[in-house]
Write a structure and sequence with these properties.
2 copies of one chain form a homodimer. Chain A is α+β, with helices and mostly antiparallel strands. Chain A is built from 6 helices and 6 strands. Chain A starts with 10 loop residues before the first helix and ends in a 5-residue tail after the last helix. Chain A binds a DNA duplex through helix 2 and helix 4.
DNA sequence: GTGAGTGCAAACGATTTGCACGGTG
DNA sequence: CACCGTGCAAATCGTTTGCACTCAC
């Protein structure tokens, strides 16, 4: 299943993709997706719900979870695990990785300069690799900013 | 004490490392570590607690969490995020990555053939990268059924 | 002896579930 | 019209917290 890595699919794209997976096109799904795309970056289900609420009629948390799960299944958004009890979502754009600062808890993007996926895929003959999630941990430039003189 | 970075640390190593971090050497910590090492692979806090219980006097969950956190801080065990509400731990051995099968939920090890960490480190000038966690997702060879496709 | 670590009980919070209603196809 | 998806309420479950006791150092 090849997924065209569009940076920001339009509402029509969302609708088309949902349909192609046998999923229905509904308000919450479009709203959640567009909100996530507008916010950009990595957002929690709660952040999405808050943004949606501040943007109009709002949406119950359950529906946000439902929509996010459906969108994730459809391959339109990607889930990032940044620890237990913390699921973050982002629009499934170009490939990149993540850096989690141990000190300030910031989650930074790291450009994917190398086809990590292809490299590692060679190690598992027979497996179908659909995505690669890389999480680096350490101290971010800002927190390290105070040079250990 | 010489610490072999590629071998599983002995109880003495555990004690030494804990001490070197200013942490005390206690029963729960040694028990949890040795149990995790004996079980091998990736284990949840609950699995460790169960194994410890079946192996003698047992240990309350809180203590298992305490010990795992202390061991993780000491760098003796590594935490792997395999989804929200699921923290897995493993003895901090040689560097390797993980593959999570979408179908059977199996978590497989992937040999670290390439210095992913070094490669990506170049993308974040000023950051101190302490660890790299790679989680590949897809369908494992067994679930893919036909290895030759 | 002192303070870190333990472990009991209770809180916590993100996520999930069951089910009746409403909208999509 | 049939069924998927919504959304309310409540449950669930891994994990965290507060605090008095105990043990390592």
């Amino acid at each position: 299943m090849t997924v065209d890595p569009l940076a920001h699919p339009t509402s029509d794209d969302v609708a088309a993709r949902l349909r192609s997976r046998g999923l229905r096109v509904t308000g919450p799904r479009l709203t959640v997706y567009r909100t996530l795309a507008r916010l950009g970056g990595h957002r929690s289900a709660d952040q999405v719900a808050a943004a949606v609420a501040g943007d109009g009629p709002g949406l119950p948390r359950t529906s946000v979870y439902n929509a996010l799960k459906a969108l994730a299944d459809a391959g339109l958004v990607a889930a990032v695990d940044a620890g237990p009890g913390t699921a973050l979502y982002e629009v499934h754009g170009h490939s990149h990785h993540h850096f989690l600062c141990r000190r300030c808890e910031a989650l930074l993007d790291v450009p994917a300069a190398t086809p990590v996926q292809d490299l590692l895929g060679l190690q598992l003959p027979g497996a179908v690799i659909e995505s690669a999630q890389v999480v680096l941990r350490g101290v971010c430039p800002q927190c390290a900013g105070t040079p250990a003189s």
